[in-house]
Every structure is written in structure tokens, then in C-alpha cells.
Write a structure and sequence with these properties.
Chain lengths: 341, 164
């Protein structure tokens, strides 16, 4: 019994230890500036935001310096390692006429921002996510070719119910009989968000789907697809809402037009907030141990972190579901055959 | 980089990679997967319908079988009944025939016996007559040894004649 307890204690301490390994040295670094020796906000924000380096742990090999790709009218395209922005004490330095400040790169002389197409942490996560999706679903597709006319097996049988769920429970009921045209986009969207959310929960991973640039891009795609598929009834409903008194139409019109944009805006904000907030909660709980400098607090917060992590797994699925569901709904509204009386 | 302001680079990368991903997944994953799923669903649907049809056919066949069985049973009953009747008739006929044959034999025997009896009787009569005549001859010879007896007899006959 005591040995069992000991093992349990050690297991419970693991997340805290991991966090300690990941963050502790940086805490000492910022000790001089932050009150109480530990700037929680700085650490957490550093984790959830994008970066030009991928920090796994402190030490010589703990940081992956990602490539910087920049373009300016003055200097053209340039590619170099982000290591060049750091000296041996991890202080920011100018390099080759470029200066980095708060993650943004400027021309050192004029202070003009450059077009930054660097492979940042999130871009790298994006690549990993894309490659993983391609590998997984190519394998699933291969399963269908191999088990033609037979029951699904292996990875194929794992993903089949999810694919069928997206098709039959999300897309079909919301879009109606035109659904097949939108299914590839919606399936890609669903699995991109799901995989991104789950990858983001891995220790050391970047916060891809909790980045507002990513959610904005996805929301814009949904916006474009929705409005380009809009039929006469859809636009008629927006510009000349049927069954509304004449004068009221002038009130309704701006509301409808604002509605066009609030839909994708809500998609963007919802996913960004849900995922980022989850990460912030997890990191805050882990940070408690360092704020209180106490193993007991670390133990308790580790247990809570474990619990929140499970919730985050749930949230990962729910957010993928919700984004796909609302996209389907919006497309469904745009292509529906309205029949007002 | 800031939390709330989307970074241009990431937007460009995200748009590019995501579009490429949608294209590749649609071509190499979703198309074969969705087609296979649809194919399978159609085949399952067809199999179910075929099973339903087969079941209906089966029920129909069963009903047919039941009918055939009933008919066969009726036929069997009929045949059995007929057979029983035939057997009975045959037995009856045989019995009648046997009785007739027996009767005939008995009659024949009776007739033969009758004939034998009559023949025997006749024989007996002849014998008896012969014995009677011999006895009578002997008696007569003895009685008519003297003349008086002869005269007396003649007189008796004469008397009878005269009476007539």
C-alpha cells in the first residue's frame, strides 16, 4: 500500500515536473523583473502565442531555431535561421539589417515592418498537422481500397464512424440535398480543427487552432463559400426580407448585412477563445506550484490539471464539431430553397 | 507576436496549406472514402432488400408447401381409404367365393353321398327281395307240400276273384 501511494504521488508529480523543466529556468530569468519572482502572465502568453523559435526545454539543445523568411521591397526575399537574432545569452540582437521586437521583424534602419513568411512555431505545427492528416486519411483511404467489399479494419474502422458522423449528423441535415459538394471542405475542416486541437494539447506543442490568424482564415473560407453558394432566395432574404413591412425593411437591411459578417466572426472568436482559454487555464494551474513554491500545491494542481486535460480533450472534439456544424448551417441557409408564403 | 492581432505570415501559410490540404484530401482521401461508403451503403441496402424479398418468397413457398402438404395428406387419406375399401371388397369377395366353393363342395359331397346311399339302398332292396323270394320259395315249398293246402289256397284266390 505505501509503495502504491508513492508511485501515485510520483505520477501525480510528473506534469508538475514537466512544467518545471519547461518553464523553471525562464522563471529564474525573469525573476528580477516580475513581482514575486515569477511572471505568470508572461510565461503563459509566451506559450499560447506564436514564436520564431520552438522552445522545448532550456539548455543548449532545447530550442529549435526555425527558419525566418522575410520580404521587403528594399532587400527582396531573404531566408536565414532565427538563431541569428539571439546571442549566446539568449538576448535579442540585430542581424543583417533586421531587428526583431516582440516577435515582429522590422528593418533595422527605417523601422519598417517586413512581410514575414517565417516558418514560425505555428506554421511548423500547421505543417505537422497537414502531414499527419494526409498520412492518416491516405491510410484510411487505402483501407477502403484493400478491404473492398469487406468489413472495415484498423485505422479505417476507427475513423469511419467519425466520417459518417460528420456526414450524416452535421452536414446532411444542415445543408440538405446539395450536401455532397461541400462535404470535402467540411470534412477537411472538421479533422483539421480536431487534429490541431489535439496536437495543441501535447506538451511543448504550439497552439495552432488557438491562434486567431488560423481561426480567422478558416472563418474567411467559410464566409466565402457561404456567400458564393448563396442562391437568389438567400440574397433576397438579406436585401429585401420577405414578409416585413416596407419601412421596417430599412432597419432589417443593415442588420442582415452585419449578420453576414458576424457569422464568420463568431466562428473565428469561438474557436480561438475556447482553445486558448483552455491552454491558459492549464498553464495557470501548473504555474500555481511555482507561485506558491510548494510541492503540496503542485500535487493538487497537477490533479486538477489532469482533470482539465480530460475536459480539454472533450473541448477539442466539441470545438471541431461546433465549427463544422455552424459552417454547415450557414451554407445550408445559403443554398436552402426558401418557400415563404 | 500578439495574441489578438492575426499575423500576416501565418494567415498566408494557413490559407495556402489549408487549401492545398483540402484539395489533396478531397482527391486522395474523401473521394475514395465517401465513394466506398456510399457503395457499401448501397450494397447493404440492396442486400437488405434482397433478404426481404427472399423472406417474402420463403413465406410464399412455405404457404405453397403447406398447401401441397395438405393436398398430399388428403391424397394419402383418399388412397388409404380406397385401399382399405378395395381390401375389404377383396376380402369380402374372397370370402364369398370361398363360401360358394365350400358350399359347392358340400353339395357335391351331399349329392355323391345321396347317390351312393340310393345305390346302396337299391342293392339292399334287391338283396332283400332276393332273400324274400328265396324265403318265400322255401316257405311255399314247405307249405304246399300237401294237396289240401294247395286246394285251400286256390279256393281263397277264387273267393277273392268272385268277390271282385
Amino acid at each position: 500500500m505505501p509503495s502504491f501511494l508513492l508511485i501515485f504521488k510520483r505520477l501525480a508529480l510528473l506534469p508538475a515536473l514537466a512544467a518545471a523543466l519547461l518553464y523553471a529556468p525562464r522563471l529564474y530569468a525573469s525573476e528580477s523583473t516580475a513581482a514575486g519572482g515569477f511572471d505568470v502572465g508572461e510565461v503563459i502568453l509566451h506559450h499560447v502565442k506564436d514564436d520564431h523559435v520552438w522552445h522545448f526545454w532550456d539548455g543548449h539543445y532545447g530550442t529549435l531555431y526555425l527558419p525566418v523568411i522575410v520580404y521587403t521591397k528594399e532587400k527582396g526575399w531573404e531566408i536565414f535561421s532565427s538563431r541569428n537574432f539571439y546571442d549566446e545569452h539568449h538576448n535579442l540582437v540585430e542581424y543583417n539589417g533586421y531587428r526583431m521586437e516582440h516577435g515582429h521583424i522590422y528593418l533595422a534602419e527605417t523601422g519598417k515592418p517586413v512581410l514575414d513568411l517565417s516558418i514560425t512555431k505555428n506554421v511548423a505545427m500547421l505543417f505537422i498537422n497537414a502531414v499527419l492528416l494526409l498520412a492518416v486519411f491516405a491510410a484510411v483511404a487505402r483501407g477502403y481500397a484493400q478491404n473492398k467489399g469487406r468489413a472495415p479494419r484498423g485505422i479505417q474502422s476507427f475513423f469511419e464512424p467519425i466520417i459518417v458522423f460528420v456526414r450524416d449528423e452535421i452536414v446532411k441535415p444542415n445543408i440538405g440535398h446539395h450536401y455532397e459538394k461541400y462535404l470535402p471542405y467540411l470534412l477537411s475542416l472538421f479533422f483539421f480543427i480536431l487534429f490541431g486541437n489535439l496536437l495543441g494539447l501535447l506538451p511543448g506543442a504550439g497552439n495552432l487552432t488557438g491562434n486567431i490568424a488560423v481561426t480567422m482564415t478558416l472563418a474567411v473560407f467559410t464566409f466565402l463559400i457561404t456567400n458564393f453558394s448563396g442562391n437568389k432566395a438567400y440574397w433576397g432574404h438579406i436585401f429585401w426580407t420577405p414578409g416585413v413591412p416596407f419601412l421596417l425593411r430599412f432597419v432589417i437591411l443593415p442588420v442582415e448585412i452585419v449578420g453576414l459578417f458576424t457569422k464568420p466572426f463568431s466562428l473565428m472568436i469561438r474557436l480561438f477563445v475556447a482553445i486558448t482559454a483552455g491552454h491558459i487555464v492549464l498553464l495557470s494551474l501548473i504555474s500555481l506550484a511555482f507561485i506558491f513554491q510548494s510541492i503540496a500545491v503542485g500535487l493538487v494542481s497537477s490533479l486538477i490539471v489532469l482533470f482539465i486535460n480530460l475536459i480539454e480533450l472533450l473541448v477539442a472534439g466539441i470545438q471541431a464539431y461546433v465549427f463544422t456544424l455552424f459552417t454547415s448551417l450557414y451554407i445550408g441557409m445559403a443554398v436552402a430553397d426558401h418557400d415563404h408564403h | 507576436m500578439d495574441l489578438l492581432t492575426p499575423g500576416t505570415g501565418l494567415i498566408i501559410w494557413q490559407a495556402f496549406v489549408f487549401l492545398l490540404l483540402v484539395f489533396l484530401l478531397a482527391k486522395f482521401a474523401w473521394k475514395p472514402i465517401l465513394n466506398s461508403l456510399k457503395e457499401r451503403e448501397t450494397s447493404i441496402q440492396q442486400a437488405l432488400e434482397a433478404a426481404e424479398k427472399a423472406r417474402a418468397e420463403m413465406a410464399h413457398l412455405q404457404a405453397n408447401n403447406e398447401k401441397l402438404l395438405q393436398e398430399a395428406r388428403n391424397e394419402r387419406d383418399k388412397i388409404l381409404k380406397e385401399a382399405r375399401q378395395t381390401a375389404n371388397r377383396l376380402v369380402e369377395e374372397a370370402r364369398t367365393e370361398a363360401r360358394l366353393a365350400a358350399d359347392k363342395i358340400v353339395n357335391d359331397a351331399r349329392q355323391a353321398i345321396q347317390l351312393e346311399k340310393q345305390a346302396a339302398l337299391r342293392e339292399v332292396k334287391v338283396q332283400v327281395a332276393r332273400f324274400s323270394i328265396q324265403i318265400a320259395e322255401k316257405l311255399l315249398k314247405k307249405n304246399l307240400e300237401n294237396d289240401n293246402a294247395q286246394k285251400e289256397l286256390i279256393e281263397t284266390y277264387l273267393k277273392d276273384i268272385s268277390v271282385n
